[in-house]
């Protein structure tokens, strides 16, 4: 059968992006819905994919997700603060499509897409980080999405507070983890204004770079990724890219050789499309796994 | 040809362990040499493997190693403090054997061995950490050794100093990285005595557990390993295992579910043999890769 129809779903906390392609990746249909309650939103998505007679489905979703092998609640949303979604059995909800499904986190999907056709094209390893409402990251290692006992939660790595920073941190679990110190809401809480209003304040971005570099140093020591792709709302402050590179070089202090920093820490190659492209690649993988 | 002879070399800073097995893993010959200069030591190892007519070779070596794809100095030792070995072309030195060779770090080899026949047997992911003269770690991810642009350097993750700890850290590159705060020489430098003499001092091990748990929290967030195996000289202080587990639970603060901590953080299953067993598994992999 050579008439595959891949369904891709980028499930975000704000919106749901659904795309259907043919086996060559040509977009056949698409639909974007606001993320309301599961009861309102999911049936519409199921209908959309049914109407398009997809043959496999890939989902890159906001999280945290339960991806524990053998878990009774495998494929459901875990303790998300998103109202109505906590514990929602996401994977289960698409069973009625009766097609192979591959589910992972949005950032894992984005990492796969960037490694396949984006900024890390042709590389068998990369890291995709988003700095937005939270900090999340996904990785490709030896050509495959990195998962273990569940999906990584890289945004929560511990960081060392800067000696001039007295902010107690904004993560309800850890206070001063990377997300607690450097995600958008942490910037807002520390400085009393949203990042977009602080563009001109150099101290803000110097400190931001200090924490992001510290997280990237940890990722570098642990994963040795061939490329680090840095995206998300906060990275709209383009000056951050060079600040992060400088801080990273300073913190690594020559212990590992990351090569040209401009080639190591880069912006996404697929812009806003990494998520949905990742979901479509997952659909292809789901088909392959079902056949093998 | 069903008469493979696997050569395994565990290349350590103190000693070199060489073993030859048949294709079923039966040990046929072995030799252990002190690690003197490369010129004194390596020819003896080459002779040993030649005499045994090995058909492939696996090496798990101390490091850091240059394992960068396409590097002119691929397979050589990088900036090791071990006298005479800095820049030594380790892989090159065994070319005259004319057999397929697989080279990685000692800890990567140990992780592979623990995942294949040790404490993580049957799991497709694990982390092997040694806390000794340095802190090193190797990982298996999706059944394969984790490497990226080079091998990981997990011991150098940044850590947050404990509020009661004024020690400036012992890593020449980073001061207060995990290795700089918690490896054997850091204990010696902070307390003025070697760890073995401090067994009775609870403060020492409580603080040690604080730093080890912080490193393991970072590894957990980033890699989501199915098992964390903790070995090396410092872990001879057996009380550390439960202290590390308690600290880890405290620091994760419920954000990720590692299951039963006694099953998550464990001692090596292969004791001192993980290194050489890993090297022998690498020899098997080298054979397979040469055939494919
Ligand atoms: N131009 C900007 N400069 C700094 N911060 C920004 C900018 N635009 C958005 N942000 C911050 O990024 C966060 C939203 O991130 P985004 O990646 O767009 O969404 P999400 O993480 O929810 O998917 C908010 O905290 C917002 O303050
Ligand atoms: N019983 C012990 N208690 C505490 N520390 C120990 C003990 N035995 C060895 N060490 C420490 O472990 C380190 C050596 O680690 P080891 O794993 O044996 O060697 P290496 O890391 O050099 O391969 C030294 O710093 C030593 O002080
Ligand atoms: Zn956190
Ligand atoms: Zn260090």
UniProtKB/TrEMBL annotation, chains A, B:
Keywords (A to Z) from UniProt: Kinase, Magnesium, Metal-binding, Transferase, Zinc
Domain of life: Bacteria
UniProt xrefs under PROSITE patterns: ROK
Gene Ontology MF terms: fructokinase activity; metal ion binding
Record EC number: 2.7.1.4
Pfam families: ROK
Name by which UniProt lists this protein: fructokinase
PANTHER family, per database record: FRUCTOKINASE, TRANSCRIPTIONAL REPRESSOR MPRA
UniProt enzyme class: transferase
Needed co-factor(s): Mg(2+)
Source organism of the structure: Shouchella lehensis G1
Family: Belongs to the ROK (NagC/XylR) family.
InterPro entries noted in UniProt: ATPase_NBD, Carb_Metab_Reg_Kinase/Isom, ROK, ROK_cs
Catalytic reactions on record: D-fructose + ATP = D-fructose 6-phosphate + ADP + H(+)
């Amino acid at each position: 059968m050579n008439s595959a129809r891949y369904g891709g779903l980028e499930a975000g906390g704000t919106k749901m992006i659904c795309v259907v392609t043919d086996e060559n990746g040509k977009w056949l249909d698409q639909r974007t819905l606001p993320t309301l309650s599961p009861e309102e939103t999911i049936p519409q998505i199921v209908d959309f994919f049914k109407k398009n007679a997809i043959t496999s489905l890939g989902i890159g979703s906001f999280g945290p997700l339960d991806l524990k092998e053998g878990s009774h609640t495998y494929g459901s949303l875990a303790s998300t603060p998103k109202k109505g979604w906590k514990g929602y059995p996401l994977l289960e909800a698409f069973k009625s499509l009766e097609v192979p499904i591959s589910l992972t986190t949005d950032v894992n999907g984005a990492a796969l897409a960037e490694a396949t056709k984006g900024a890390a094209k042709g590389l068998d390893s990369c890291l995709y980080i988003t700095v937005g409402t939270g900090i999340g990251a996904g990785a490709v290692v030896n050509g495959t999405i990195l998962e273990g006992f569940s999906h990584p939660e890289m945004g929560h790595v511990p960081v060392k507070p800067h000696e001039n920073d007295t902010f107690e941190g904004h993560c309800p679990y850890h206070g001063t983890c990377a997300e607690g110190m450097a995600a958008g809401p942490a910037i807002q809480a520390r400085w009393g204004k949203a990042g977009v209003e602080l563009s001109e304040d150099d101290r803000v971005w110097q400190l931001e770079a200090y924490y992001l570099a510290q997280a990237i140093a940890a990722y570098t020591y642990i994963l040795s990724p061939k490329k680090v792709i840095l995206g998300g709302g906060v990275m709209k402050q383009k000056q951050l890219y060079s600040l992060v590179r400088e801080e990273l070089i300073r913190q690594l202090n020559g212990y590992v050789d990351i090569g040209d920093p401009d080639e190591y820490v880069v912006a996404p190659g697929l812009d806003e499309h990494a998520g949905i492209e990742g979901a479509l690649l997952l659909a292809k993988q789901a088909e392959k796994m079902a056949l093998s």
